[in-house]
Amino acid sequence: MANTTYSVLLLAEQNELALAVIRSLGMVPGVEVHLASNKKSHAKYSKYLCSFHLVDNEKESNRVKQVVTCAEKVKADVLLPVDVPAMRFAIRHLQILSKAGMLPPLPESGQFERVIDKYQLNRWLQEHDFPTARFTPVVQKDDYTDAASQLKFPILLKPVKDEPDGASQQKEQQNLYLFETSDEWNRFLQDHDPTERDAILQEYIPGYDIDCSILARDGQILAHTIQKGFILQDLQYSPGIELIHNQSLYKTAREIISVLNWSGICHLDFRRDKRDSTYKLVDFNARFWTTLQGSLGAGVNFPHLTCLAALGVSFEQPDYEESKFVMTRTALKHLFTPTGANRFSLHETGFYYVLKDPVPSLVKAGCALKRALSSNF
After folding, report:
1. Which of 15, 48, 82, 282 is deepest in the core (most CB within 10 A)?
2. Are residues 197 and 220 in the same domain?
3. Average pLDDT over residues 168-188
């Protein structure tokens, strides 16, 4: 497995996810990495990237032709979609794209759309007797009071789909609200209209977040890691995670993947319900994830394994070390403080990968500074 060399063309819209995948593949000797995107990307400045190709952002039929041309130009062995829009694009044009390069395991279109839609996902979980929180959609104004009355407070209001346009995870969190009482919910309705965007109301699950990252084919898990946050933020993803082993959670995740007959990469967000000690799936991310390098540091290089699966190279399910990973911004806040230095080391942070490949992050910071200065003048 270590001696397998190949050329891979990444398909992506989300810059940070693309960069995480590029840097993961950059750790593998002999792998050539190329990127095709319909958006400008600071990821193109990565030292691990051999070429960047900007493809049509308006007409999808043109984008398909341009991706095929790119794949032929770079002699791509593998075409690897990174984020939700790219996954949808690859699934939709599977027959044409598969002639230009090998594609990784992918779900069929209806299944993909079902799992990334929180309402459909929750209905599926209920139908198959998996533990889930009580929920109800918010469809029209008259449903507000009735919808909330069907649930027990506290309740969450969240979008049915998180990434309609490849939005950042930080932006997604701004659309998530927690209401402790019916009075809080009613006050919110005075100034907001949840039906401006498809939304779901869901009972809040007391407990903690725990996630499972997976590569699967035909319902069989090929690789996985499990992570739990140790730097916690209210209603937000944890910027600091511990890679752990948890057989009970893995059993639940394996059963879901098996019943779904899932093929592809995914990151499953669970809540461990302290009331009944069950693990309830609250989000199914059918894409690579922002803490990807945490899995890499623990010994599981998901992008590389996904490419090997595309190429038909067999491998044993890898084990992983229990370790920590902290996102770059949070690491910079904590790394040089007395308490932070004792909690994790440099190589357990996103900053470690930035130091190895600094130019994309410098370009991103420069663009942010330029925007800030222009807005003040």
Report:
1. 82
2. no
3. 74
